[in-house]
């Protein structure tokens, strides 16, 4: 008789789910989020970033590229002081703000004490002198007053459109709101740089080449800064 014993079946191998698809899915979601973040940051800083870029370019080459910044308008006023006259620069500052409708106090105040001066073979006492500088992106005003005089001289200079943009770039005479907006543009540039590098590394296989280019750019920038300061 034939042996009817049935040979046991071989155990089927246990299939394990690979974690590679899950990793690829998370990587794809991260890159998608990174692209959206990069694009929205660029949209926020597009207009002001263009302004900062253009004005920075013109300032870097102002000695070579004689770019016309627009004609300046200069106005000089001789204002009669109220009675009684201001007793100190702070009172004169407040009066000028009210009289000339200036939006903010003087940016800089100079006070020169009275002193004896020589005039040929004679000597005289020069009175005390006050000088107040007011600044905004669209104008610069300088008030000069000699203590005891009945008038104060005010000279106002209005730059052209390029001068206004350059003043905004350098934050000359601006308020807190503009400083905060400019800070967000600076932060946006930093984030654009970081997200751009991350996107390049995530979307390209030649990561070593990208890392090398990035490292060389940092070394070159530091070398130029060291050479300039040295």
TrEMBL record:
The keyword Membrane applies. The chain crosses the membrane at residues 40-58, 176-202, 208-229. Keywords: Membrane, Transmembrane, Transmembrane helix. Pfam families: PepSY_TM_like_2. The keyword Disulfide bond does not apply. PANTHER family: INNER MEMBRANE PROTEIN WITH PEPSY TM HELIX. This is Peptidase. The lineage of its organism: Bacteria, Pseudomonadati, Pseudomonadota, Betaproteobacteria, Burkholderiales.
